[in-house]
Amino acid sequence: MTLQAVDALQKIHIEVEKVINGMKQNDWELQSLCEGWRVQEVFAHMSSNMKEAINPSPPPETAQEPMKAEEAMEALVTPRRDWTAQELLDEYAKYLNDWISWLSALQDEPTASMEIPLADLGTYPMHMMANAFAFDHYCHLYIDILAPEGPLSGSLDNPTDDMIRPGIEWMIAGMPQMQPTELAEAVTAPLELELTGPGGGTWTIQPAGEDGLIVVDHRANLGAIATVASTAHDFVSWGTKRSDWRTTCNIDGDENYAATILDTINII
After folding, report:
1. Both 10 and 134 in a single domain?
2. Same domain flag for 139 and 218
3. Following CA atoms 41, 47, 50, 53 in sequence, which dihedral angle do they give, to the nearest 10 degrees?
4. CB 56 within 8 A of CB 20
5. DSSP code per residue over 26-56
6. Please, which pLDDT band fits residue 38 given cuts at 50, 70 and 90?
7. Phi and psi for 107 in degrees, rounded to 5?
8. For the chain: N or C, fewer Cβ within 10 A?
9. pTM listed for this prediction
10. pLDDT at 60 over 80
11. Are 46 and 138 found together in one domain?
12. Whole-angstrom distance, CA of residue 214 vs CA of residue 229
């Protein structure tokens, strides 16, 4: 299972607290790297996800069209835009421990292997919810909020392999399902993805199988016509379209083909 992702979240939370304790009041108003969200909205997103997991809001009285994942995130953030920093911090603290316990419980069978649909992101085994949140917290803290890409400076230790890797596993697992049509059209030959540094590894992105989805194997030497090299940390940024892959990736092989795929990838 992915109990490592629960451990990663606890370690990332320690770093979140360090940032919070060093923030000034006007820091909450600064624009984060996440488009349309100030630092305030980023924290509102994190705290609202925790609250909804433990104390879900009642469904609307009248049936509505299912929202896409990003629409649902924005719907939770919107009513919190005018909250004070302290209100957000109180919500975060209120649900943190129960949220960690909930994610830990999802690692136990038979729940762990039960599949859950996540809006337009695809369907995943329940244990991977911890990976999804490890990715979410890491991305928002280390990419959206902290310099050099985000607006805040902080004297945090460099993130370790065990903090980054669970989120990378979520990104790899989500790649085929989050863009089923776009990537199936773009991937016509194997492309090797080599992620270096903490959280790294090598995967081969292969053409779609019988189910119409591309295949991402945790192996190399599968006949790739190009290899893309990047740090795992940078992959969190360019793989979510927060930055341009051209600034941090090196390509060996068919550059035009690799560029087509890299321009297409947009992980949520």
Report:
1. yes
2. no
3. -60
4. no
5. GGGGSB-SSTT-BHHHHHHHHHHHHHHHHSP
6. very high
7. -85, -5
8. N
9. 0.94
10. no
11. yes
12. 20
